[in-house]
Amino acid sequence: MENSRRSFLKGSLTLGAASLITPSVALATRPRVDDGFKFAVGPYLQTNFNNSMTILWLTNNIGAGWVEYGEAPDQLNQKAFGKAELGLIAANSKLNMITLSNLKPGTKYYYKIVSKEIKSFQPYKLVYGDTISSEIQQFVNTDVNKAEISFLMMNDIHDRPESIPHLMGLVGNEKQDFIFFNGDIFDYQTDEKQIIDHMLQPCVDNFARHTPFVYVRGNHETRGKFARDFPRYYMHVGHAAFTLGPVRFVILDTGEDKEDSHPVYANIVNFDDYRAQQAEWLKTEIESKAFRKAPFRIVLMHIPPRFSGDAHGPKQCTELFEPLLNKGKVDLVLSGHTHRHMVHQPDKNLNHYPLIIGGGPKAGTRTITKIKADANKVVVSMLDDSGKEVGAYTAMKK
Ligand SMILES: [Fe+2]
């Protein structure tokens, strides 16, 4: 009896109607929860700097949200809504992503998130339910012209949410400009709950209400049935570039490690083209004024551009990206993927740049990497999960 019930449940989960509808519809129309309208997680901050800050959160039911903000806690006199597309402001969703723009450099902002439940959405009658708001939070809009910057890198957490507070706890309370997640924070993507429980909630609890994070996918975030929904929960998880203080940051999404034709990908991936497109983009980036005029150029990518074996993905990263990293005179590359922390010195015949690889994911092999940069030097210090420095590098201005 129990066995047949189990196999029935398994069958209905596999063949349920939800699998037949498109992901965005599935997310937006999930049944209402009846224990009151609440925030499910957040707020969490993400940014590419340039005087803007993106605030994200999730509610337990569908709603419409906005952010109230200002320069004093008792003067939240500005209001920002989600992006409007074709005249429609983003709403009717549990997920909220709102960007505050034209912020003043180096200024502290106070904000709260507000959501209004949508109880029913008829063509000519929308019924709102409860309105909820968060406590007042704060962040400093980083001055992109500041002389010294600092950030932390975590990588290869692999569904171990407790690693986030543990590693963050090793570095003290010094203010960071951002936290960088260099891929493989998950083993594979299953559902929204996994994203909340294994990443967003520990980030919110530890730093993300006041310090933004930047994130790039590893190979594991491309796997699983929710991989195509997963990017919606973030400002971006692919390639990007931005300038902060003396550094031009370039982020590459290195994709999968096996060949696209490998049976585990079931003929529905095309990372070869994706990496080739990024190489084209990188060619343009290294010619850009922002890249060339920056005192330092730091590249962040999950699969290292070399020294991670001879699987198809790593080999393609070497072939496509390394010549450009050398040509662009990149000062530092930060990676993960190998699960063994390592500092590779520059080599005039191979990688002209220092390559620092963080470890993980098991206790005893995890690392957090601290990076500080000013106009003269970039200083890297990698700590293991006992707090001991296991890697260090200083890149001087050439
Ligand atoms: Fe990886």
UniProtKB/TrEMBL annotation:
PANTHER family linked to this entry: ACID PHOSPHATASE RELATED, PURPLE ACID PHOSPHATASE
Gene Ontology molecular functions: acid phosphatase activity; metal ion binding
Calcineurin-like phosphoesterase domain segment(s): 150-340
Keyword Ubl conjugation: no
The keyword Signal is annotated on this UniProt entry: yes
Signal peptide stretch: 1-28
Domain Purple acid phosphatase N-terminal: 49-117
Entry keywords, A to Z: Signal
Transmembrane segments: none
InterPro entries in the record: Calcineurin-like_PHP, Metallo-depent_PP-like, PAPs-like, PAPs_N, Purple_acid_Pase-like_N, TAT_signal, TAT_signal_bac_arc
Name of the protein this chain belongs to: Metallophosphoesterase
PROSITE patterns, alphabetized: TAT
Organism from which the protein derives: Pedobacter endophyticus
